[in-house]
Amino acid sequence: MISETLQKTVLDNRILDYLLFLAYISAGIIGVKIIKSLIVSRLKAWSQKTANTVDDFLLTIFKKNLVPLLYLGVLYISLKSLKVSAAISSIVNIASIVILTVAGLRLIISLMDYSLDIYWAKKEVDVTRQKNLKGIITVLKVLVWGAGITFLLDNLGFKISTVVAGLGIGGIAVALAAQTILGDLFSYFIIFFDRPFEIGDFIIIGEYMGSIEHIGIKTTRVRSLGGEQLVFSNTDLTSSRIRNYKRMEKRRVVFKLGVTYQTSLSDIKAIPALIKDVITSINDTVFDRAHFAAYGDFSLNIEVVYYVMSSDYNKYMDVQQEINLHIKEEFEKRGIEFAYPTQTLIVEKTEENH
What we know:
- The protein is α+β, with helices and mostly antiparallel strands.
- The chain folds into three domains: 2-122, no CATH class; 189-244, SH3 type barrels, CATH 2.30.30; 251-334, Alpha-Beta Plaits (2-Layer Sandwich).
- The protein is 59% helix and 17% strand.
- It is built from ten helices and ten strands.
- It has helices spanning 2-6, 15-49, 54-79, 86-123, 127-155, 161-177, 179-194, 234-238, 265-280, 313-334; strands at residues 9-10, 13-14, 202-205, 208-215, 219-224, 229-233, 242-244, 251-259, 285-295, 300-308.
């Protein structure tokens, strides 16, 4: 009696087939739970032994991405034991492709987010750069989802070649029309990842100078010493020679002074050592050299080189002022006079014959 009941057909399948279907699903669910328990316990034990976050990331990926796919596989294989209509089979296949595509895209995005976290941890990215980087990641996510949806539609049988070709031609037209904007966008990526300068850096570009205030997708804004805001396109900056003074660890200073031709030989010989003593007595300076360098048009020229162990411009000016005052004081003690532009007019008197 039971065997006859099991052999009865309902919707092209025996009752026995339905029971086997339920048995397959039950066994598959139990198997997935066992696998999940084993793998999760192993990953948790691993995470407790290591200081990195790779194990935590793998655990999250397994729970959110792989476990749902295992359940989907159990359902898909179990359905193969039943005879279903072509419509139901098509729906199952389409649903499987959609779920696999979405799972794959989520996995790619999870890898991107994890790489972003690792980048932040290693580079100690500040809040502003994090915001900019999140904007870039958002653009990349849109591109990933766009490519994934295109792949999905293609696998579902939609003829997207014509659409893609049309988008390609339209994209070329848009790219030509927005060439400058795209150039600035790519330059922004170069600035962001290569980091030739950051917000707060003091830079000089040609005849312009100032501190970086904002780095945008198209333009970078600089606050000049005069107070006005200078706006540069990112392409201009990446194609220019930029002097970044914030990256300077020390400042090399070269200056010249001239004394009169009436200065005695002994004083000329003493001036380099005198200047050396002045510079070495001042904090945050390193003396390099001082020489009687040349005979000028109206002066004997002394050339001096030293280093200020700071990139701060105000610090450099304070040091230079202190050096100038000490040199002035020492010259006055010794009666050494600074030269200034002078001309000597020699008039020759001659007698005229009458």
